[in-house]
Structure formats: C-alpha cells, structure tokens
Amino acid sequence: MTVPADATLLERAQRLADEVLFPRALEADRGPGVPVDQLDALADAGLYGASVHTAPETVTTLIETLASGCMTTTFVWAQHLGATAAAHFSERPANRFAEDLAAGRLRGGVAFAHMLRPDPPLTTAVRIDDGWVFNGSAPWVTGWGHIDLFHAAARHEGDIVWGLLDATDSATLRCIELDLATVASTRTVVLEYDNHPVPDDRVTRVESHAAWLAVYRERLRNNGSFPLGVASRCCTLLERPAFDRRLAEVRDALDAASTEDMPSARADAALFAVQASTALVAATGGRAVTLNHHAQRLHREAMFLLVQGQTPQIREHMLDRLGPL
Prior knowledge:
By secondary structure, this protein is an alpha+beta fold. It is 48% helix and 18% strand.
C-alpha cells in the first residue's frame, strides 16, 4: 500500500471537509447512520491508516480539519484509528488485521472508555484454556453497524486484557443503542457481554491498568481537536476576526500544553466551541434554530464535546470557568 505524505493527506482532508462533508453534514446529522459513501471517501483518501502512517501532530490536524466538515463522520472515523493502531503495534496474531484496517477494507471501533472509571470495573476478563471470557458492560461504543471489529478492554485483576472482537450481536454480545440528542447517527451503543469468548488469537496485548492510565493521560491532546474543528467552522461562518484569533490561541495552548496543563487546555477548547457556536446562533437569528441550518447542529455538537473524552480534571476546570462571576 502506498502511503501519502502528511502534507498530501492534510490537503485531501481539507478538500473533503469543505467539498464533501460540510455540504452533507445536516443530512449526516439527521440520518439513521453516517452515509457509507462518506466513510468510503475517507478510506479512498488514505485516511484510515493515519494513526500508524503519520506523525501525531498530523493526526490532530486531520481530526480538526474533518470535524470542521462533519463531526459525526469524523467521530466514527476517529474511533477506527485506535483499532488500527492496536492491530499494527500488536506482537500477537491479532496484528493480521492491521493492513486491512489501515487501508479501510476493515473498519474498527473501540470499547475502553469504562477503563477510566473507578473500581469496580464494568467489564471483567477471566482466563480459560484457549483465551478469555468477557463479562459486564461497555458504554459508549461508537459506529455500531458501520464497523467490522472493535478494540475491547476488560479488567483482569490489576491488568487490562485487550482484544479485537467482531462487531456483531450474538448470544454472548448484545448492543443497546443510545438515544442521543446530538451525533445520534454515530450509532453509539452500550455493549453487554455474557460470557463472551475472546480467543488468544484476537488478543492484542495484556498490560497493567495503572501503566495504561498514565499513558492515557499523556495522550489527551487528540480529543481536543474535535472542539477545535467545530469552533473552526463556526469562525468561518461568523467572519469575525476576534474569533479567529481566539481559535489560534486555544489551538496553540493545546499544542504547547504539558501533561499537567492539558486538562486546563482541553477545558478551554471545549468551552470555546460552545462560545463560538453560541455566537453563531445569535448572529444568525431565528433561522439558527431550524433543523436545516448548520448553527443549531454545531451548537448541539459543542454540547456533546463538553462531555466527550472528559476526565474529572477537565470537568473541574470547565466548572471553575463556568462558575458565577
């Protein structure tokens, strides 16, 4: 597979955001699922392998760029990046999926948000002769119906067991679709495991839960690109230079933030998306609350981004800034 240069990928992403995703964003927002041809367009552009073939700063820019076009499409695609990286960097047989995931011939999602919650764990793993058995639930699994595999996490004592599982309902795996006020077409579900078998050849790695948490805290930058993308589109539609300047400041702060400072920078990014989308609604007037106008869509997406990828530290920073004057 020929991998496009980072600059080429960024050019393709900008063109897709402006010419394909944004013109159809209202359709994608209100549909039963993300239009498959939009996901196909991202695969055709070589974007499904971004998490393994490009620099980390390219990935953050890609997320921002695509999210400025269509948050729902971008959110489904971004979950795929985690599954691709998991297969690519695994030293186990599960890495046989890596090439097809990077090319977009297989599409993936993730099921690990519950690993951030305090004990007791929501999903547990028990060792059996030829693999593991998962039990419990996994909330916030995005892309159901759009994906072939999902990278799932379950706790075994002090470790996390990770596996690439088939994204198919079965006697041991049941999905419950969430009724969301925004990004509903991402087909986000809660998964229920009932003695669900995970063969050894589907396991990507087993690692310390504490060690994973430490690494996760160092990778909070990526999710900050979603509010930047929403805010960027709002700024484009507002055509007010002060908002453009503030967007650049928020982006620079995210890029420069240390691990300790990142929760504060992430809070600023989420709140700026709310501010920019609120301004767009106010500037647009009555048309902004009709379902065929982008202002209401962007405002609802900004609401979603107040809770997406949130940690207790990010939440506290947001609440401090939103407190009474």
